[in-house]
Every structure is written in C-alpha cells, then in structure tokens.
Amino acid sequence: xxxxxxxxxxxxxxxxxxxxxxxxxxxxxxxxxxxxxxxxxxxxxxxxxxxxxxxxxxxxxxxxxxxxxxxxxxxxxxxxxxxxxxxxxxxxxxxxxxxxxxxxxxxxxxxxxxxxxxxxxxxxxxxxxxxxxxxxxxxxxxxxxxxxxxxxxxxxxxxxxxxxxxxxxxxxxxxxxxxxxxxxxxxxxxxxxxxxxxxxxxxxxxxxxxxxxxxxxxxxxxxxxxxxxxxxxxxxxxxxxxxxxxxxxxxxxxxxxxxxxxxxxxxxxxxxxxxxxxxxxxxxxxxxxxxxxxxxxxxxxxxxxxxxxxxxxxxxxxxxxxxxxxxxxxxxxxxxxxxxxxxxxxxxxxxxxxxxxxxxxxxxxxxxxxxxxxxxxxxxxxxxxxxxxxxxxxxxxxxxxxxxxxxxxxxxxxxxxxxxxxxxxxxxxxxxxxxxxxxxxxxxxxxxxxxxxxxxxxxxxxxxxxxxxxxx
Length: 472
Known about the structure:
Elements: E1 10-15, E2 17-30, E3 37-50, H1 51-60, E4 64-72, H2 75-86, E5 90-96, E6 101-108, E7 111-118, H3 124-137, E8 143-147, H4 157-166, E9 171-174, E10 188-189, H5 193-200, H6 206-220, E11 224-228, E12 234-240, E13 243-249, H7 262-275, H8 280-294, H9 305-313, H10 321-333, E14 338-343, H11 350-360, E15 365-371, H12 373-380, H13 389-397, E16 404-408, H14 414-420, E17 424-428, H15 439-444, E18 448-452, H16 460-471
Parallel strand pairs: 1-4, 1-8, 2-6, 4-5, 8-9, 9-10, 10-11, 14-15, 14-17, 15-16, 17-18
Antiparallel strand pairs: 2-3, 6-7, 11-12, 12-13
Helix pairs in contact: 1-7, 7-8, 8-9
C-alpha cells in the first residue's frame, strides 16, 4: 500500500466542532464535604475534537483538508481557532453568540474522574451561513466528510448530500442519533455496532447482521456500510452491481488505551484513502490500521504516516534508525514509557520469549535492537549467526510483547541508546547493572536499568550443541 498517494486526497469536512480539554492532576484525599476525590490540578491540555479532530486526522495523513462549521465568540472559540491555526488547518467558520461546544475531562493520572459537556444547540441562523461556506467550497474537493455528533450544527444533511452528488463527489458520514434516513444517498456511513444495532432494532446473529446491513444499503441507497466493532475489528458491506458483498477486517490494535476519537480517525482515513485513488477495501484496511494506532494513545489523537507505514508493512524489514527514532519520539509525546533491550536473538527459543515478555511489563513500548550479522560474527565467531538479520527480526517482530525491532552494526548499542534515550534499559540477570552498556547514560537521565531472570539451561549455544550431538 503506497501511502504517498494520500497526498492526492482533497477533503471538505463539515460538522460539529468541539474543543476537547483535559485538566490533569493528582488525588491524595477524599473531600470531607462528600464522598468524592479532591483533584489538585497540575496541567491543562487542549485538543481539537469532533469535526476538527477529523480534519486534524486528514491533515496528519497528508491530504488537503478544509473545515466548515460553527464556533462561539467566547474564549473557548478563540482557543479552538488558535489550535486550528497551529495545526495549519484551513477553515471556514461561522461565528455564533452561543457557546462553543466544549468537553472538559478531569483526570487523576490516566483515570478519568468526570466529563463536563458544555454546549448549546445552534439554530438555523448559523446553518444558513454554514450552507453558504459549504456550497462555495465544494467544487474544490474530491470528497466530503460529515462529522455528525448530534450537537445541532447539521440542520440539513440531505442538502449536503444532494449538493455533493450533483458534482459526483462522494459523501462519507460518521452517523449519530436514531434516524439514519437523513443520510440517504451518501457514499458510505460508518456506525459502530451499537449505533447500527439500535437503528435496525437489534441484531440476533451474524446472519441477521448480513440481512439488516443489506437492507440498510438498499433503503438508504448507499455504496457501502462500514460497521466498527471494537475488539472484533470492522465489517464492510459493499455494493457491487446487484450484489452486496461482506468483508471482515480483524482488529490490529496492539493495546487499547483510550477509544476517544477513534471514529474520527476511521472516517478521516477512509475518505482520504478512497479519494486519493485506493479501492474501498484498501481504504478500510488503512482505516483499520489507523484506528488501531489511535486507541493506543491518550485522548483524541491522529496517527502519523510513519506509524501507519510501520503498522501496514511491519513484517517487511528491520526499522531504520531514523524510523525508530521518530516512532520513539511519537510515543514519548504521548507519555509512553520506552523499554530498550538488545542482543543477537539467534535461533529464537522459549528463553528469549519469556525474557521479552518480562521486559514488556516494565513499560508501554518495547524496542529490541538486534546485532547486525557482522556484529554477531565478531561476538560469536564466523559460523554465526545461524539466521540472517531479516530472519531474526521477522521472528522477534511476530511476538506480541515486541513493538519495534531495529539493528546496530557496532560492537555495542551505546550510540543507539544515547539517541533513543529509553526510560528503561533491560538485560538478563547474568549482567551486573554497572556492567550493562548504556546504564550510566540511562540512569543519568532519570531512567531505570533492570535485569531479568533467565530461563535456566536454555540458550542458543546449548541448542546448537544439542543439534550437533544429534548428528554425531
């Protein structure tokens, strides 16, 4: 899948624009006034939400994007406009005397204590202004995303669909509410399983799902229906001639940290991919991978092209130093703890697997740096490694405990450790902390150096000896 072609996409996003605010702090006591925790604020973070998060996701994928919607003339509206400017997202916004849609989340560490939704439904006065912006801008784009959060911005969705269809521009809709009839004529809609089930009066089993999905496509004159199903992945129903075909896409999420905004990522990725020339099936694969990335991040977020490229092509090769540095940088931005270990990992065995599983428990992302083939020869002799670097990397990358695999050609990984600055450096119990390469550097930066107990009697050298004994 060639991700560079996403630059061809031109997406017009219209819908409910939301400011997501995260007030983070710590809790050390319970209020004497009521049985509730007392939060001591320590930091405030603002992010684009709703339709503006959709636009941010499109932008992150490299496609051209413009946002149409409404914000208030209040301080929240000013902050939202500032975030859009900082993200270089072009927008045509209607100003309103009403409150900007604002979600305030109170967090103790990573635990959400409370969410406050501050909002007022916009009326037709704002809608007339939005319609003008939309009609004026439409001709410059290859796809439209309708981001419907049910907050009152979208008074006439059929108008949006009709105007786009006149120009043969596909409309992608992330639906809300219990009346999908207003989405008739859209190219595709992307309800989650609960939204779909509620709309069709419940789903008994997979056969019932098939029947009701096909009926919805026919009733709403859709080209496609994509149902997001959480841990079960996604199911696409696509109209092809007189038939409706089903395709299932298992989840690719390695871990689930926060599902906030995952629907925004799906609709943004789907539209960007399809409008840039990818098939609908490939577009869903991309959207599935993108969603798998953002649920591993905190709050509303976007996947980077680098993260997507790794997720979609992770089995092809060892990550370069530039790639691994960028991935670690992205993870650190999202407060992920980076664990680093290194070794030859020739002839993968249960000792390796157990060791890496224990290493992963020490943080959020595990980086394994493999000695290059020439480096292994220096350490182990001219007959090693048994498996070439790419073979060893593919085996290690296949383990659930391992996030990223890279390599180094030097005798030690010291240079790589200095560049990555991991939070935790790990080696086996056969090492003393003071003798571990990179320990001084990691400790001086406030990191940790840990040793892990090895599985007794199991090593690559012992395996090779046993194999030789069998042949003798």
